[in-house]
Design brief:
8% helix, 425 residues, mainly beta, Immunoglobulin-like
Length: 425
């Protein structure tokens, strides 16, 4: 469920709906009204190295509006108590893994999806119905959002938890750090960005004084599996790390629990540099073309996330009383980029701040700027007044070329002609 596609004209998003049935009805209405979905920029496929196995098990993946379904051929059975159940034609083990790649159709997805711009590692998202980093809440496949830590360095758009059902998004308005409360709680976040290939480049972003560094890869018991030391006369900006020589140890096996396959990369460097990264390795699943990988296990500790019931039949069934239990529907809420909107006269003339916009924009030099960042959406929406429900129409961004102004604020530029709403000096 991507905010870019699921924002209504009044600015409300699907995340404001606490009940899954209401969220699914939101999707149904979007579909009925002919709005595009994330499927315009993403396709859902099985990994090529597993296609033959999945074909033998009669598994298929098909797109739906704003997502996909995994289908399996079954035998229908009536149990002694009159229940109608469905048995997989070919049985699936309790520890069986189904992988679906979320492959980018273009780079558009990266342009409007919230993410850290300067991530030191090129990791991809991996979502699962099993607990990976903290306890998950059905129906969300995302890991819990980390609690706010005043010692952390936050970038514009980063999210943090301030308590139960209290997620906020960071920005600096040019004078002070601020946190904007947002609706929803289970957003895809940096705790889901774990997947890497066995060889990759590590970048020292925002650091220009590193001349030597040590990389130590450790397992869950803090045992060092490999140490890489790099030093040279020149400053280190990007270094190549190779762990393919221990691939048999660290690659995801056929059956596993995440506790055993998450490794920690400890990085130390000159001038006091220190960082830690939690990683999962798999060359077959990772690709720069894949935005994410979804891993569905047949049975997990939290039975709400199971796709097979304890009796071995599918969760979808009909009770003796005729009441249907549906197959589980999992969700991945995704935030849009969170830039300021910067209005610039198309001829470069200095803009005036019209009286109608004084509660929505501020004037800085020749341009006008929203008072706080706004999440970008494909559907035009009205701008809301700070601290009130009043709204006003202004042009929305069309170009997602992210800019950084002289106060380090991330912005989308919106070129406007001279008009009553945007008069010039």
């Amino acid at each position: 469920m991507h905010e870019y596609y699921l924002t209504a004209k009044d600015g409300e998003t699907v995340f404001a709906l606490p009940n899954q049935t209401d969220r699914l009805n939101f999707l149904l209405n979007q579909f009925a009204d002919g709005y595009p979905s994330i499927n315009a920029d993403m396709e859902f496929i099985f990994p090529s190295h597993l296609e033959e196995i999945y074909h033998r098990l009669r598994l298929k993946v098909i797109p739906t509006y704003s997502g996909f379904r995994v289908l399996i051929r079954v035998n229908q059975k009536i149990l002694a108590d009159g229940s109608l159940v469905f048995e997989p034609l070919f049985s699936l083990p309790d520890d069986f893994n189904i992988y679906i790649l979320l492959k980018k159709r273009s780079n558009r997805l990266d342009n409007y999806t919230q993410s850290q711009l300067n991530n030191p590692i090129p990791s991809a998202f991996i979502f699962s119905n099993e607990d990976v980093s903290g306890t998950k809440s059905y129906p969300f496949l995302t890991n819990p959002v980390s609690a706010f830590n005043p010692a952390n360095f936050y970038m514009q758009g980063d999210i943090a938890s301030y308590g139960v059902n209290d997620v906020r998004q960071y920005y600096n308005d040019g004078t002070a750090d601020k946190w904007q409360t947002i609706t929803g709680s289970a957003f895809a976040n940096e705790n889901d960005r774990l997947l890497l290939p066995l060889q990759f480049y590590y970048s020292f972003v925002n650091y220009n004084d590193i001349t030597e560094a040590t990389f130590i890869l450790k397992d869950k018991n803090d045992n060092a599996l490999k140490t890489i030391n790099i030093a040279g006369p020149d400053l280190l900006q990007k270094v190549f790390l190779k762990f393919s020589d221990i691939s048999d140890t660290i690659s995801i096996p056929d059956t596993f629990i995440y506790e055993d396959v998450i490794y920690t990369l400890e990085v130390t460097g000159s001038n006091g540099f220190s960082a830690k990264h939690r990683l999962v390795f798999d060359d077959n699943l990772y690709s720069r073309e894949n935005w994410a990988v979804i891993n569905i296990k047949t049975k997990v500790a939290n039975t709400s996330f199971n796709v097979l019931a304890t009796d071995g039949y599918l969760m979808k069934r009909r009770s003796p009383a005729g009441v249907w239990s549906e197959a589980p529907i999992f969700e991945i809420p995704v935030k849009s980029r969170f830039p300021f909107w910067r209005f610039i006269n198309e001829k470069g003339i200095e803009l005036k701040l019209a009286a109608a916009l004084t509660d929505y924009l501020v004037k800085e030099d020749k341009i006008l700027l929203t008072k706080r960042p706004r999440s970008v959406a494909g559907n035009y929406f009205l701008l809301q007044k700070e601290g009130a429900t009043d709204t006003v129409y202004v042009p929305n961004p069309l170009n997602y070329d992210l800019k950084k102004d002289d106060k380090a604020r991330l912005c989308f530029d919106i070129m406007v002609p001279e008009s009553d709403l945007f008069p010039v000096v």
